[in-house]
Amino acid sequence: MENRKPKVILLVAGEGKRLRPYTLDRPKCMVEIDGISLIDRQLSVLKAEGLDNIVMVGGYKSEMLKREGVKLKLNPRYYETNMVWTLFSVEEELDGDVIVSYGDIVYSREILQALLESTADIAVIIDKEWEGYWRARNEDPLDDAETLKLRADGTIREIGQSPQALDEIEGQYIGLMKFSAQGVSQMKETFYAAVESGELLGKPIENSYMTDLLQALINSDKLVTSIPVYGDWVEIDTVSDLKSQVTLERVISIGESI
User: Fold this and answer.
1) What pLDDT, on the 0 to 100 scale, is given for residue 139?
2) Which residues contact residue 58 at a Cβ distance below 8 angstroms, ignoring those fewer than 6 apart?
3) Which of 13, 107, 183, 199 is the most exposed place for a label (fewest CB within 10 A)?
């Protein structure tokens, strides 16, 4: 039987207010490093691995996201909702094996290959060498970092909280994950339980992050498996990220892997 490659859903609805003025005329994922946008860099990596069933979920200035051979759908409430709502605004696309990725990251083929090789129902890329990268981006490495605690078997027991100390971070979530058909089913079940209760981890579901959804899955005894990587990715959240020499060096290195 043919081994079908997973569908890819790119969450690219955001404006990127911390990247103003660079996002005044374009979505966050369309800011450029060395003349090439984040989204086009990510699409190059995906296509290098033969992934061509790609759905972008846009919002802010979405007309700029149109790409040949890529399906573009919209979260009409992008300006008042967050990642989980953006993902479930295209629920009809959540079938079979699915990779979900943020649009403000760029990663190497090796990272994508590690994710593709995982047989876990819910697999989440984590950077074990996050600290040096965070220190290059922030005076305090705890700024903008999130907790990530692992069990001995590599499954995640806590993700996405505000850390008080470095030892609460055994890797950094980068915004790249894969769900098998079973994992998608578990994710939908968790999402609709939250819709029914009116909240997800104590916050309105419209405002919840993917890490909230992953933690809710963990809390309901679903296995969320970490896939460790060691650098080879960038995240662009701020103007200083965009202008950083570290960002440029990493992006050039990633480009050489394609």
Assistant:
1) 79
2) 12, 13, 27, 65, 72, 73, 74, 75, 78
3) 199
Per-residue confidence at 110, pLDDT binned at 50, 70, 90? very high
pLDDT at 197 over 50: yes
Is residue 27 classed exposed, middle or buried when 0-12, 13-18 and 19+ CB atoms within 10 A define those classes?
A: buried
Lowest mean pLDDT among 8-17, 133-142, 156-165, 175-184: 133-142
What is the rounded distance in angstroms from the CA atom of residue 252 to the CA atom of residue 33? 9
CA 8 vs CA 56, 86, 87, 112: distances in Å: 8, 14, 11, 11
Average pLDDT, the chain: 94
Q: What is the mean pLDDT of the segment spanning 136-146?
A: 84
Exposure of 243 by Cβ count < 10 A (0-12 exposed, 13-18 middle, 19+ buried)? exposed
C-beta of residue 81 within 8 angstroms of C-beta of residue 207: yes
Backbone angles phi, psi at 191, to 5 degrees: -60, -45
